[in-house]
Predict the structure of Alpha/beta fold hydrolase.
Amino acid sequence: MPMIFLRRAGGVLMILVALVAAVVAALAAFFCAAFATALVPVLVAAALVAFFATFFLSCWAGLALFGLQRSQRPAALAAAVATVVFGAAAGVPLFRPMPRPVGPPPGSDVRFWDLPTGSRIAYSHIPAVGRPRPAPVVFLHGGPGTANDGISPAGRALAADGFDVYAYDQLGSGRSTRLSDIRGYTVARQVADLDAIRRRLGADKIILIGQSWGGELAGHYLAAHPEHVAKAVLSSPGVLWYGAFRERASGELWDRLSPRQRERAESLASSPRMSAAQLLAEVNPSAAHALLGDDEADELFRRILEASVSAAQCPGRPPASLPANRPGFYVNQMTIADARTLPDPRPRLRTVTIPTLVMRGECDYKDWQVTYDYRRTLPDSTLVYVPHAGHAIAMDQPAVYLAVVRAYLLGHRLPLPPYTAATPPT
């Protein structure tokens, strides 16, 4: 009796070991196949072949090892088949499409540029009131990939001051086109698009107003084309050079999330399809894109942003809402990855004498040195510290933001004093 019990227990153990071995083999085959192809059906076929071959070979080996009698083998095999079916069902979430976004249709003020870079870019324009000033204003949104809804109230106020004002959806976000090869989302491509836009406007010089990543993009444009920038305003700019910050480059936004927000963000970011896509991106970005298309990835990205946006504000501020415009997941992931590989632009920027305003909010989640790096690098820069504002100063303190930006661009005295210390206020 004990021997029979041990044999039956051994049969169950055999099935479990075979299942584990089969899952490991399937995952290995799935990701190894991605080195050779981006075709998802081929990846799935490789995984299935590896799964079933490993499982049944392990089972037959186990049957012989535990010496199950012929009369016991059908039951063991039936249990094995049931286990396979259960395992296959568990893999369904990996291939079940997620909800797709229903973005706002282009409004009457949205137009498109077909640039020589190959990018089709959505933009909005408000002409200057009266005779336009020599340099148009171009707003650069954050993210990468978090496009705004057209021109902001600040942009409309600047148009009333005589500036031609433009706001555009960067490649891979908003209403602009997505690339079929996501490896094309690079900092250099965004800089090239911006310069192509400048030429399309017929402007020798432009005024750049960048928020977060938009400030980082403005910094890279200044390094590449300083002769074409009249002034720049960098509001809560992103990391100028990742090599200088390492682990601090992302700031402390994650630490500011409440337990509920963190749980929500983690559940979204670790969904089976998202996890598989992120792993595939390390092997073959095209395979990741084929598995998780732009529509699904962008919608998931929006939900992650919605779960964490309030953590970028000062405590007690009214909850912020995301723009209705569609975010871009792959341009976010690939552009940041590319930025981490770039050489240091600061030696070049130390020679650029373009008037630049750097704005920092009291509650900005980014490390202080990320912001101050712009002030100490750009020779003709002014740093302004904005109390009671988070990462999005224009959202938390719109009146102060507008007053500072207008004064700077019009050459008036700033309503807030320049901040000159190398350390943040205490």
Summary: Confidence is low (pLDDT under 50) at residues 3-7. The chain has two domains: 1-94, 111-410. The domain at 111-410 is CATH 3.40.50.1820 (Rossmann fold).
